[in-house]
């Protein structure tokens, strides 16, 4: 049978994969931009990276020049949004699938 395997990514590797999949610039994530698409991408990248691929919050924060608490807030908001927003749930699954490997 074929199943997904989730490798462990360093924060820099994860950002390259996730930004490529979501079509967002890493610089956009780092700046103070609060437009809805950037906020949504931050939540997806934080949630799936930490939850599914072992990315460390502190490393992700350092790569983006953000605080650990700020990145933790992205993850909490993403987890709540995943429960209430079907499209966000679907996009989170798509990012998970894209970054997983076939075994």
Structure, explained:
By secondary structure, this protein is mostly helical. The chain has helices at 11-22, 26-30, 36-53, 57-64, 68-84, 86-99, and strands spanning 4-5, 101-102. The longest helix is centred in the middle third of the chain and has 18 residues, at 36-53.
The helical percent reads: over 70%
Question: How does the overall form come out from the CA principal axes?
Answer: globular
The radius of gyration is 13 Å
Strand order within the widest beta sheet: 1-2
Q: Give me the secondary-structure category.
A: mainly alpha
First and last CA, distance: 8 Å
SSE ordering: EHHHHHHE
Number of strand segments: 2
Features:
2 strands, two-stranded antiparallel sheet, 103 residues, globular, mainly alpha
TL;DR?
It is built from 6 helices and 2 strands; from the N terminus they run βααααααβ. By secondary structure, it is mostly helical. A two-stranded antiparallel ribbon has the order 1-2.
């Amino acid at each position: 049978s074929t199943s997904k395997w989730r490798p462990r990514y360093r924060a820099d590797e994860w950002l390259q994969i996730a930004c490529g999949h979501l079509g967002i610039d890493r610089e956009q994530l780092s700046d103070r931009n609060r437009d809805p698409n950037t906020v949504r991408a931050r939540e997806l990248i934080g949630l799936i990276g930490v939850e599914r691929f072992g990315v460390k919050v502190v490393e992700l924060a350092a790569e983006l020049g953000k605080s650990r608490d700020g990145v933790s807030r992205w993850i909490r908001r993403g987890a709540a949004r995943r429960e209430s927003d079907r499209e966000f749930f679907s996009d989170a699954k798509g990012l998970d699938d894209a970054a997983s490997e076939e075994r």
